[in-house]
Amino acid sequence: MAVRGQFSSRLGFILAAAGSAVGLGNIWGFPTQVASNGGAAFVLVYLVLTFIVAYPILMAELVIGRHSQSNMVDALKKISAGNIAKKIGAGTGYWALIVVSLILSFYMIVAGWMIAYMFQAVTEVLGWSAASTWLTDFSISRNIIFSLIFALMTIVIVSRGVSSGIEKWSGRLMPMLLVLIVLLIIYVSMQAGASEGWKAYLVPDFSKVLNGDLILSAMGQAFFSLSLGVGSMLVYGSYVSKKENLVSLGASVALVDVGIAIMSGMLIIPAMYVALANGVTIFNEAGQLIGGDQLIFTVIPALFETMGGAGDYVSFVFFVLMTIAALTSSISMLEVPVAFTIESTKLERKGASWAIGIFVMLISLLLIFNFDVLFGLVISLTTQYSQPLLGLMLCIFTGWVWKRDSILQEIKQGADDVESSLFWKIWPGYVRFVCPSLILAMAYHTIFVG
Ligand code: TRP
Predict the structure, then answer these.
(1) Which atom of ligand 1 lies nearest, measured to the CA of 326?
(2) Could you tell me if residue 58 is inside a domain?
(3) Ligand 1, atom 12: nearest CA belongs to which residue?
(4) How many domains does the chain have?
(5) Which residues have a Cβ under 8 Å from the Cβ of 2 and sit 6 or more positions away?
(6) Using CA atoms, how far apart are residues 431 and 398, in angstroms rounded to an integer?
(7) Which of 239, 252, 353, 362 shows the greatest Cβ crowding within 10 Å of its Cβ?
(8) Is residue 97 a part of any domain in this protein?
């Protein structure tokens, strides 16, 4: 069995886990969802769900991971006492492996778009307009080439292992992304049309809040953005030292993730209205968003164009940082099946990373060739349906299967006084009763009420 890696410091973990959480979900997914689900109403529901459902499950993953020191399949077996529970645990773990591989397969396509736009900034400066057109036009050849490039980068990093690969890559450039987003928010606010965007983003239409589609999307988004349910956070938790306080680590990760999502909405939504004011078509006549998954690729370049000559340089930096943010997330996805494989077969990290990476690339190709049919379908099956249901299973395992005493012993390491804390007063009962009920209620609502 392979020796388990460990994050070298508290900051190393926060950066890696925040790196996993912050990615395309925040900057591509979140604003797109806000724009297609009624603006501020979506933001409100997303925030509430992150706080009341997603964060408690994040904690469950971190605690299970550090306690079991293993991948999700073995972890759920370890915390179960009886044979049946062990079987269900393993089954849940395998399901998670499938879901995370599917998520990675569509993620690589979107990340490929970021790389294409990064190159386009260069070809623009050079005046190679044919190349620029190819890079920004939606084509099978472009999608294949850039998702493969992204896949290769992901595989190379994961094959090098936790501390030398993942930790080094995560975090270094994230603060830069944050600074750039803040500067862009300031810039976009000064453009004509921005104030209408602020209104759409901040003033909720409460009549939409209980809409079934909106709740389903917000739930999927909350789970996706915090990388939940599939074992990414569980595996990262297994690499955290026993000296760390998991409660505060989890809270920091959730706060960073939500913060970046909200900020990217502050950039993209006003930018969308600025683009509208500049004559770009974004909505159709019925007021629906055209080509949702391409929204930021319409809006962001249109914003950079208003900057004159500087635009191409800003664009380059923006898409480089987006690519890196995507990488620190994709490595946390590939790590899930890779950790499982090296811990349960004789395969080494390197071989496992390549084998699984290539397999996921093949799924990606399938999605690219059948984009219109499969892309949206896979996203909704994985993020809106599977992730919350996997979250439900994690709640059941934490709340009903795993012994409460053993949970407390685990959390206590690195947090001596946790027993008297508000967290310990609320969380155990909460993941036992409230979280599962909320997920089930929402499932019921979307299926039967709509
Ligand atoms: N949370 C990341 C993002 O917002 C994506 C991600 C990483 C993810 N690991 C995951 C999503 C596991 C679902 C499951 O971009």
Answers:
(1) 15
(2) yes
(3) 227
(4) 1
(5) 342, 343, 348, 349
(6) 7
(7) 353
(8) yes
